[in-house]
Amino acid sequence: MLLWVSSFWSACGIVEQSRMRHPSEAQRIIYFKGSPSALLNGTTLEPDLMLPRAAASMPAYALNSIEFVSAEEATVDVSSQTGIEADNKNWDTLTPPQELLRFSIKDSNLWLTKDGTEEPILVFQENPSDGTWKLSTWQNADVEILHASVSPDASMLSFLFRLKVGESLFAIYLMGNEVVRDPPAMVDRRYKYTAGDGFPVGYRANPLKLDLCVDKYDAYFEAAIIAWSHWKQSQTYSEAYIGNTLVLTEWLEQYPPFSDVNTRCIYAVDAYDFSSAPSSYVGGTTIVNLNPFSWEMAHSAVLIPKVVYGNSVRYAATDELIHVMEHEIGHMLGLGHQFERSEQTGEYLYPSVMSYGDVGVQPYDFEALEKIYGVRP
Prior knowledge:
By secondary structure, the chain is mainly beta. It has four helices and 20 strands. Strands 3, 4, 5, 6, 7, 8, 9, 10, 11, 12 and 18 form an eleven-stranded mixed sheet that branches. The protein has a six-stranded mixed sheet with strand order 1-2-19-20-17-14. A three-stranded mixed sheet has the order 13-16-15. Strand 7 (about 110-115) and strand 8 (about 120-125) form a beta hairpin. Helix 1 (about 220-230) crosses helix 3.
């Protein structure tokens, strides 16, 4: 999971499988100013989960976990962002995850256990009326489950919970697939992706649904629409193509939290992250989950902190906010940061909205997406 600078002087975060680690690993801690619970303001929470029987037959799940920690103080100094661009992921291969979890039926219950352990992390009880499994037991009694979700095919599950003492939130994502695919072949390393430099991993779903979870007609809604139009090379945000993939977008009046695996959304949230580097704050954070069995993006969510922009966007979207949205949408679609510079001039070698310059979506960005989503005839 990574957190970096996005546009002008604010910072951007892309939260992948782990900070400066291979996607087969997991665990990331993000420090938020104020209470992380503010990330849930305006969302609809559903703590109960009915698990389809398909989950019991899934060979294995990979784990990705994120902890959101409250920190009392943050120093914001926009004059110095030294050293934040060390973001390239130059591994040569993509490999399966190192830690696996599996479901098994024991005593008429469904247990989720980690390989090499006996005690269940989760226990589900069968509902004989419809053959589903209902979450009944969590391993840790000191936590409160706030929201749980499962994809229709049970290839992805998520659990959002809070410690009963303290302010921390935890998001746990489980990703599985009945068919294990080979990882994609590496393309030109100058194309940067969330999976690693040169590895074009994106969404396989077509059509692909990406939504807006913000107050309608405020500045964040306006900025998201404008940013989407730049990526889709279209003046509408509801339906357009990126490569061969049809992208459908709508505004959701009621919406679940960022952890929900059935919603890929842009959120305007009441907290901000300052964990990317000393003396910096984060102008946008994108959470990305890559499925290391099917080698595709399984889920993404963009968090735009309202407190960072404050009164400057009260009445209209600013150029800075639009630019941040463009950058985060790039992450949402699978692009990584492009930080390569000329040794002679220090200028970026490949102008890109995924760098920290003040340029919008560039031809390079569309070229990088074509490696994932193809070229529309």
